[in-house]
């Protein structure tokens, strides 16, 4: 074959390979997770569906065993679920969510609480909740809370950053980045076949990455978090923009860092060594589906742990599942509730007054 033609064919093959790799290849699981986390900050608008299901909750202590109310509460929480369906946008800052609470057991009950968040105000629709009587004329109205007024009443200054969801997203991104940075890619991250990930219908995913902690690596995972991750997280909280947002002072952060540094390492290591004796991880995994634009489109966390402390006689079993599904990322959003009108709202002062009158 003519040398010139051989070079041309080889060049075409290499070009096709690079093009296909750019379209379909998967990144290293850890790098893919970090990349998706970084891109989450670029999500200026989206719809979200979240759900938390408490499959099992058992807390046995000397105190709870003799407390019927505690047993009843755990019975209500078993199989309970919490849902959040909503819409978010950055500019102008507006989001609305409907919080669904479904309790099971002998005293089962379900109710929804719509809420709207703007740059300076929070609106929460007043539900009719069993065993918590609310004046009939207030049910269905929105309790409006002005962050600026609340801050003034408490003798402080209004901090707009406390309601800045974009900044909260950036904080979350930085925290997750330092979390992923120090965990070994081979031990904690792996790819899951998209077909085996049991993704809901409509979820776009080119790759699914799992972060996993087991009984075999839990001690090392805890050591990594305490000795490497947590100090870096404290440095992030110390940044002016985040410190103000969480309402902490420089003194608060410095004290927390000092307490962390002064912790008796020998005592800490003993506690971590003892961890394997009373902590059993049946499952602790987080699956993240990543779409073609490298946005996280779906997350599923399964937690199933048991703790049996021989010293305190405390035995805890917790099994729960959490899911987040994102859609319509960076598209124009439709707000079903909108910002409540003045005649649809009631202030905290009015609520307290009406509740007081009803009680008399």
TrEMBL record:
Residues 1-21 form the signal peptide. The keyword Signal applies. Keywords: Coiled coil, Signal. Residues 239-270 form a coiled coil. This is Lipoprotein. It comes from Paenibacillus azoreducens.
